[in-house]
Design goal:
Strand 9 and strand 10 form a beta hairpin. The protein is of the alpha/beta class and about 180 residues long. It has one domain: Dihydrofolate Reductase, subunit A, CATH 3.40.430. The chain contains 5 helices and 10 strands; from the N terminus they run ββαβααββαβαββββ. The strands form 2 sheets. Strands 5-4-3-6-1-7-10-9 form an 8-stranded mixed β-sheet, sandwiched between helices. The chain has a two-stranded antiparallel sheet with strand order 2-8. It is about 25% helix and about 30% strand. The longest helix has 12 residues. The two termini are about 15 Å apart. This is Deaminase.
């Protein structure tokens, strides 16, 4: 059975999306980006909300940019090879290969997808992930914690959910970013 992984960059105070501005520096450093690529290379299916998909679709054409560094090229190729499911009631079409739209998030369909998949799945975006967390579907949480406190926005974890997690891996980077991987107990 495949794992469902929720991962995002998050501020030190727990926000995956800042109310104003960005979450701070650290993730754009080559060392961090290459690490993220290595961690998610085995993932063969990405589950996105519309806004996260619109951010990530950049990787469909990233390989065509001039002077693309090898770690960016590798990430683009890995992303292009994966299946993508976009959950949206408003998106009319997709602009990437291996991508389909689902109008509603169906926890039973995601359970079946996990059961039938040979490779892990990733869910991205705090709103969509919140639905999966509430349904008990998320097996691992990968947090990339910046050094910034942003004071508000969309939280990484949804309100009203209690989880008992086990820390299974951690790493700090010279940029100050901290990676923490937790498993659901």
């Amino acid at each position: 059975m495949a794992k469902l992984i929720y991962s995002m960059i998050t501020s030190l105070d727990g926000y995956a999306e800042a109310a104003e501005g960005n979450l701070g520096a650290g993730a754009e450093v080559e060392e961090v980006h290459a690490f993220i690529g290595d961690v998610f290379r085995p993932v063969r299916t990405f589950l996105y909300g519309r806004r996260m998909y619109e951010t990530m679709v950049f990787w469909e054409t990233a390989h065509t940019l001039p002077d693309v560094p090898p770690h960016i090229l590798q990430y683009a190729r890995d992303w292009q090879a994966a299946e993508k499911i976009v959950y949206s009631t408003t998106l009319e079409s997709v602009s990437s290969a291996k991508t389909r739209i689902e109008r509603t998030f169906n926890p039973d369909a995601v359970r079946r997808l996990k059961a039938e998949s040979d490779s892990d799945l990733s869910i991205d975006g705090p709103n969509l992930a919140g639905q999966a967390i509430s349904a008990g579907l998320v097996d691992e949480y990968h947090l990339f914690i910046t050094t910034s406190v942003v004071g508000g926005g969309k939280r990484f974890f949804p309100d009203g959910v209690r989880l008992d997690l086990e820390l299974v891996e951690e790493r700090s980077f010279d940029s100050g970013l901290i990676y923490a991987r937790y498993r659901t107990r």
